[in-house]
């Protein structure tokens, strides 16, 4: 079973940093990048494969479709079974962390930026 990593964030500097961390962690050699939830959702609907699992590093505040709207869109679809999400946000509001915890697809909430040691020993089943 293969793991595909999607970085969904509109901040180019953060995307470059997170992409390098993902590649250095060994999770994925070529993470895909989307600047908003809508394009990521369209990709998933068009390309999802049963033999693959998807780890999504998801920002909350983005144009077009924000992270909450993205999570609302996948929770009632068949995608929910193949997707795990790490919310990575600059928000330090406890209400955002609590809201993220209400989605079964969300496995972690991390304040930006992601650090290499936060993925050490990480696996997805």
UniProtKB/TrEMBL annotation:
SMART domains: REC
Keywords: Phosphoprotein
Sequence positions bearing 4-aspartylphosphate: 59
Response regulatory domain location: 4-125
GO biological process per UniProt: phosphorelay signal transduction system
PANTHER family: RESPONSE REGULATOR RCP1, RESPONSE REGULATOR RCP1-RELATED
Protein name: Response regulator receiver domain-containing protein
The organism's taxonomic lineage, starting at the top: Bacteria, Pseudomonadati, Bacteroidota, Cytophagia, Cytophagales
């Amino acid at each position: 079973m293969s793991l595909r990593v999607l970085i969904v964030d509109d901040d180019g500097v953060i995307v470059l940093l997170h992409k390098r961390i993902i590649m250095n962690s060994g999770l994925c050699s070529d993470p895909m990048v989307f600047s908003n939830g809508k394009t990521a959702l369209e990709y998933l609907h068009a390309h999802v494969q049963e033999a693959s699992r998807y780890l999504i590093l998801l920002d909350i505040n983005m144009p077009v479709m924000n992270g909450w709207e993205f999570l609302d869109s996948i929770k009632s679809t068949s995608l929910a079974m193949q997707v795990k999400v790490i919310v990575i946000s600059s928000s330090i509001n406890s209400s955002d962390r609590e809201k993220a915890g209400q989605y079964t697809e969300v496995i972690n909430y991390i304040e930006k930026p992601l650090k290499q040691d936060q993925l050490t020993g990480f696996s997805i089943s």
